[in-house]
Amino acid sequence: MSETQRGGSQGAEGAPSGPSGPGASRYPFTPYPNGWFRAAYSDELAPGEIRPLHFFGREWLLYRTEAGLARVIDPHCVHLGAHLGHGGEVVGERIRCPFHHWEFGPDGACEKIPYAKRIPPRARLGGYEVVEKNGLIFFYHDRDGGSPNFELPDVPEVGDSAWTVPEVMHWKVRASWLDMNENCVDQAHFKFIHGALTIPPTTARAEGSLHIAESIFTIKAPGGTGEMNLVTLDYGPGFQVVRMNGLIDTVMLNTSTPIDEENTDVSFAYSVKSEGDTHKEHLAAAIIADLKDQFEHDRPIWENKLCLPRPALCEGDGPIAHYRKWYQQFI
Ligand code: FES
Ligand SMILES: [Fe+2]
Fold first, then answer.
1. Which atom number of ligand 1 is nearest to the Cα of residue 82?
2. Which member of 13, 220, 248, 285 has the greatest number of CB atoms within 10 A?
3. In the chain, where are the structural domains located?
4. Under CATH, to which class is 167-330 assigned?
């Protein structure tokens, strides 16, 4: 499936659902989406390590076996409910519950009870699909327990010696995951919040679970102005790859994982094609400082806004409505 829209989208049908005056609630929040979401960066989890996680308003447990396999499971033991993240241990390829030392294998099945010969068939921990690539550990969240219906890409720049090692930036924001993701296709705010010289013309199209937006920014350049192209690829609601070409080639791996309905855990991993050129590396450091600054420009808007289900969009808002139509497949 492929559809294309050139900037200038209209809002959804019907009257906009506006704020309702003083005391307007931030509810209802956008429903939790299905998709691949960052559990952690790969280098945050050594073999044998266990990390309790709190995402999607509930607890999960991330661990890595001694052989290096990352797993995301339900944290409470099916025996008598102990939390494996509080005193549990990785023992080879198994995780061991702290309470009675039952041991569970990589598929979740109990493989050893130190004081029983027969293992009950129900002795199995719930687990989730995990993919580790591009320096990130992703898990698949589906509200109904469904299986993944799309794959995440390999990002060739990660690990390429011509590119700098990605620099990770990390934030917790009191806003819906949708507000985070939508920011990249909200073309007008680049001028009014981030000081862009012009409102960048943007085109957008969807290809199944992939959303592609392309913008042209006018930037200051020696002797006048120049152009920078920005391509934003959304692989479902939790992973976004942003490539910029102009003075310098850059790639950014953005993730947003809902902590709960109102808070989102956001990260950017930023890399430039420096090819060992220290001038470009210095330029990258300046861009990273600017990105952090730009994030703080958005933050007070995000943390106090409503995520309107039917916003009053205008011609010139670009592909916001298109983006919202695309993400319906995940909620
Ligand atoms: S509660 Fe986990 S082994 Fe008993
Ligand atoms: Fe922004």
1. 1
2. 248
3. 35-141, 167-330
4. alpha beta
